């Protein structure tokens, strides 16, 4: 089952000619989830071919570089005759402000737009086999991060063992792998645990939005396959990072290391480092041994299962 991340906007508060404001699209087996929606997100979606068929928008906070793309995107969806409902998940006490964005200029969408306030530490969206959970972050306003957490998968099916036990090739294999005991023609009952290994973990993807380093993110990103973390400043600007509610690249690396994440994507990058992004990556790598990269607009990253071969 595929999971692909497309970085639509990786700039800090001030966009550049190469980087748009914050937006990340996750395509999980055809379901498209948008995390933040900075100005121009709809154009970035066209430019990088992600498609517009999103089902949910998850907003970390209401600063303009994370939400000013909502009015244009809503109206473009309307112009394309959308009829399916769209859910927007926002921090507490943010519904009225987001509703104003949805209806900017007096626009009345021709499809349902449902705005849900979610507290940190809750579940924003529960699907059949994954959840999008919220985590407390530390910015200069009401804010939160998001974690897409898949359910555990069944263990590997031991076909050789099943055949050895006399299970005929066919539907009984699937029933056993699905957790159901089966009865053989000779009356013996084969239990799933006889032919199915231990459950295997699903994938975990975490997007922080703007934040200082916080323990809540470390916890929700425990063993994450991909952590997308605020890395606005280099280490010599750590005082400014603290004052403005952001993280340095080194601090992002420290969070990833504490969480035991597999990969770290640095984003929300200050325009002052244009052309010198490798500095941020180098500082994060000094404290994080996993795979680390500075995210770029248009970059796509596949997230494999932890046990992928």
Give a concise summary.
The chain has 309 residues and is of the alpha/beta class.
Walk me through the structure.
Helix 9 packs parallel to helix 10. The two termini are 14 Å apart. This protein is an alpha/beta fold and 309 residues long. Strands 6-5-4-3-2-1-16 form a 7-stranded mixed beta sheet. Helices cover 24% and strands 25% of the residues.
Index terms:
309 residues; alpha/beta; 7-stranded mixed sheet; 16 strands
Describe the SSE topology.
Blueprint: E1 3-9, E2 23-28, E3 31-35, H1 41-47, E4 54-58, H2 64-67, H3 70-79, E5 86-90, H4 95-102, E6 113-117, E7 123-126, E8 130-136, E9 144-150, H5 159-164, H6 171-177, E10 182-183, E11 189-190, E12 204-207, H7 215-220, E13 226-230, H8 238-244, H9 249-259, E14 263-267, H10 277-285, E15 291-294, E16 300-302
Parallel strand pairs: 3-4, 4-5, 5-6, 12-13, 13-14, 14-15
Antiparallel strand pairs: 1-2, 1-16, 2-3, 7-8, 8-9, 9-12, 10-11
Helix pairs in contact: 9-10
